[in-house]
Amino acid sequence: MTSSSVLQRSRFSPSEMLCLAITASMTASLLAMIWMTPYPPFQDFMEWVYQSEWIRRMLLGEGADFLRFRHYPVPYSASQVIMAGMCFVLPPLVVARLFLTVFLGGALAVSFALARSYRPEHWIPLGATLFVVVFVNNTFWNGNSNYYLGMLGIGTYLLLERRQPEATVWHVAVFGIITFFCHALIFLPFAVMVVFQNLDFRRLLRVGLALSPCMVLGIAYVLLRPRAERPATELDHGSLLQFLAYKTYSLSKAGGYHNFLFADGGDAISAPWRYRIGIAWNLLYTVIFGLGLAAALRTGVPRDPVTRPLVYAATLLIFGFLVIPSVWLDVINAGERLLYPGVLLLFLILPFPRFFFAASQGAMVATILCIVLFLGSPHDWFGKAARFDLKGKSTLLYTHRPNTNAKEVLALRDTPGNRPLPQLRIPFSFSSSIIEPLHPSASEDEDAPAE
User: Fold this and answer.
1) Domain total of the chain
2) Domain span at residue 90?
3) Is 303 in a helix, a strand, or coil?
4) Phi-psi region for residue 238, left (φ > 0), alpha (ψ -120 to 50) or beta?
5) Does any domain span residue 239?
6) I need a labelling partner for 104 at 20 to 30 A (CA). Which of 202, 220, 303, 330 fits?
7) Strands (E) located in 114-185
8) What proportion of the chain, given as a percentage, has pLDDT over 70?
């Protein structure tokens, strides 16, 4: 079936209609989670909202006696700056909900536009797969807003590049700066992809010049960052079997089962049967992904000059995912940050079979069920955040702690914009913030949950 015939088709098949219905249901459930709860329950996300409100207040002159802006570029600041601007016109909790809503809309649009551009023969199931696996990934549930905003930037670049294969220097420069300020491990996949697309000497020289501002920013970040905050790397993974199990677990997070952990222990304590079924399904989805990838590779790897560079980039990113330790450059689960861009490229360049797309729709159904059960159950929204070693269970899997930043939510909710905001532990816990305390020791909170 040619691309033009697919685009001219006026009707959807029953399976495509079902896929669209599942996608719409998942989107509606996510919107309910965002708008019908006391605050968006995405682990670290409300911390970034709290920081954004502090940035707004600092620009108005508040907090100068205990806060300051960092004097060097920080590559984890895009969402903070965007939400700080929004906080000038809207309350912070409204900003939080609106930011997530706009992101979901952008993720849907980019997912289906990419699928239609790269794989028009099955763009609907592929678009749904991109949405649930690549964009609404584990970092979304953990509230890593800068990272998934950067994933949206990479997706947008790929879409524009598909429509204009000869990427201009300005395209590379602009998206390079965008991805840099989103996340260092978003900029890295972007740079890898762009370099492989421009291996000709003259084009590589132009791309190098386009990326040079980002290189300067990165060098400044490394050199000017205080020595006490220099990135750490954790190399001890135990045996090879344990390391492989860790990587398998990282990949299986795409399966759609999520374990929301409050002080009551989440599914592992309150619904052990659901916990076991969820784990089994996520692992089964990983097996199906492996089978789908094998089938796609057996069909043949594209060798045309436009697609081949993406094959090289995807291979390098997946290799990076496999070898990078759990903590690298101060980023926890750093390999996952390379996994999602690599998987995105694999989905776009390889002909995955239908059974894999059916499994991805199953992942969406699993997510919907998790959200429905979450919304239908009572939770201690403003209680103390749970620990991962709750009641002797030190390996609680697929967990997200929705109320990690409950104190910050209370501060935002109960403090009008013209009254001083309480000085809580956040934003002083993460050195990736663009603001820092003048006196770090005075900002610690004894009751804060261990990270």
Assistant:
1) 1
2) 40-443
3) coil
4) left
5) yes
6) 330
7) none
8) 86
Amino acid at 112: F
Residue with tokens 């560079």: 309
The count of other CB atoms within 10 Å of the CB of residue 379 is 17
Distance of CA 221 to the CA centre of its chain: 22
Identify whether 20 is part of a domain.
Answer: no
| Mean pLDDT value of segment 312-317 | 95
Task: Please write the tens of the pLDDT for every residue from 220-261.
Answer: 988 888 765 555 555 556 678 888 888 999 999 999 999 998
Round to whole Å and give the CA distance between 190 and 198: 13
Distance CA 200, CA 202 (A): 6
User: What are the tens digits of pLDDT across the range 86-99?
Assistant: 999 999 999 999 99
What is d(CA 112, CA 131) in angstroms, rounded to the nearest whole number?
Answer: 8
Tokens, residue 2:
């040619």
Residue 259 lies in a domain: yes
- Buried-state track 238-254, b at ≥16 Cβ within 10 A, e below 16: eeeeebeeebebbbbbb
On the question of pLDDT at 426 being above 80, the answer is no
Rounded Cα–Cα distance for residues 194 and 11 (Å): 37
**Domain membership flag for residue 4:** no
The tens digit of pLDDT for each residue in 253-283 reads 999 999 998 877 788 888 899 999 999 999 9
Kindly report the backbone phi and psi dihedral angles of residue 400, in degrees, each rounded to the nearest multiple of 5, phi listed first. Answer: -135, 140
Is residue 320 within 8 Å of 335, Cβ to Cβ? yes
CB-side neighbour CA atoms (13 Å) of 291: 13
351 in Cβ contact with 125 (< 8 Å): no
If you write DSSP's letter for every residue of 352-407 in order, what string do you get? --HHHHHHHHHHHHHHHHHHHHHHTS---TTSPPPPTTGGG-TT--SEE-TTTTHH
Give the three-state DSSP class for 144: coil
135: tokens are 């964009």
Q: In degrees rounded to 5, what are phi and psi of residue 382?
A: -115, 20
Read off the tokens for 85. Answer: 């601007």
For residue 356, is pLDDT > 90?
Answer: yes
pLDDT digits (tens, 9 = 90+) for 169-184: 888 999 999 999 999 8
Structure tokens at 276: 């076991």
Phi and psi at 334, nearest 5°, equal: -60, -35
